[in-house]
């Protein structure tokens, strides 16, 4: 199945590392005009060395006003990938207000905010669009020490559904992908302990973690016209983890 995004304008958040970076590069290879948003300038510099056509925006998306300022000259966007997130693990009894606010600010509030900015333009132009929120298997299954992360991703799943409901009439589709562990910077931080990793892979019917490309391929499918009638789904990319 060949997917081309020629003539489409895409925005990817958290495009400095991991899944977001790979998604931005894959979209550019598929001929989209890509805007990459992240907060570490060095990551944008190296991304541009790899793909000079990408337009960089450096901002901390947890800062609502700074995001408005950074995206004020964004121009039309047809495809949005809300990918930026953090996953600081704490046991439930040790959750701090700082980590709680930081997590909800980036994982939920920033996704809502960037989608508002983009979807207002989509509605005004009447040309439709596709938004993919990067959620997690953790939205639907309790994981030890993941109380806040699980709660942010559960919130994101429901945000995805309400956005699908309200934006559908404008031919803007909104879906999420919900991966299992991927060994990016975030994945390595939380799943490098072999015993912990083994306990997780033993619960995944396919017996392994996902690769970055597995997630990117599902994102591209949901962004593309190949999923033209798919709206409001949360698509697991988890080797079957969520069936158990
Ligand atoms: P990484 O930590 O590897 O990359 C996250 C990217 O988001 C980085 O470029 C990071 O920048 C950026 N980012 C984080 N916070 C902000 C912010 N406040 N403003 C702007 N940019 C920000 O994560 P992954 O690639 O692993 O994760 C991507 C998505 O996939 C996330 O939504 C995550 O929750 C989800 N996911 C990941 C899984 C995994 O096991 N890896 C499993 C399931 C879901 P910087 O490095 O400068 O902070």
Automatic annotation (TrEMBL):
<comment type="subunit">
    <text>Homotetramer.</text>
</comment>
<dbReference type="GO" id="GO:0050038">
    <property type="term" value="F:L-xylulose reductase (NADPH) activity"/>
</dbReference>
<comment type="similarity">
    <text>Belongs to the short-chain dehydrogenases/reductases (SDR) family.</text>
</comment>
<dbReference type="GO" id="GO:0005997">
    <property type="term" value="P:xylulose metabolic process"/>
</dbReference>
<dbReference type="GO" id="GO:0004090">
    <property type="term" value="F:carbonyl reductase (NADPH) activity"/>
</dbReference>
<keyword id="KW-0560">Oxidoreductase</keyword>
<protein>
    <recommendedName>
        <fullName>L-xylulose reductase</fullName>
    </recommendedName>
</protein>
<dbReference type="GO" id="GO:0006006">
    <property type="term" value="P:glucose metabolic process"/>
</dbReference>
<keyword id="KW-0521">NADP</keyword>
């Amino acid at each position: 199945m060949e997917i081309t995004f020629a003539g489409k304008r895409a925005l990817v958040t958290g495009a400095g590392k991991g899944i977001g970076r790979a998604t931005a590069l894959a979209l550019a290879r598929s001929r989209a005009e890509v805007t990459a948003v992240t907060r570490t300038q060095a990551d944008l510099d190296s991304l541009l060395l790899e793909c000079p056509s990408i337009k960089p925006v450096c901002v901390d998306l947890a800062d609502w006003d700074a995001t408005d300022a950074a995206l004020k000259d964004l121009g039309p966007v047809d495809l949005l990938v809300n990918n930026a997130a953090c996953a600081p693990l704490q046991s439930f009894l040790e959750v701090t207000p700082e980590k709680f606010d930081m997590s909800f600010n980036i994982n939920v509030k920033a996704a809502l905010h960037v989608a508002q900015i983009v979807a207002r333009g989509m509605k005004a132009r009447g040309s439709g669009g596709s938004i993919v929120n990067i959620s997690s298997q953790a939205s639907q299954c309790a994981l030890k020490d993941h109380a806040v992360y699980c709660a942010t991703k559960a919130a994101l799943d429901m945000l995805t559904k309400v956005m699908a409901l309200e934006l559908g009439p404008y031919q803007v589709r909104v879906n999420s992908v919900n991966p299992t562990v991927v060994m990016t910077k975030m994945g390595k931080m939380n799943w490098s302990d072999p015993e912990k990793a083994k306990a997780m892979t033993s619960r995944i019917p396919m017996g392994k973690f996902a690769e970055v490309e597995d997630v990117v391929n599902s994102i591209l499918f949901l962004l593309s016209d190949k999923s033209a009638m798919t709206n409001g789904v949360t698509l697991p990319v988890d080797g079957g983890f969520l069936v158990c």
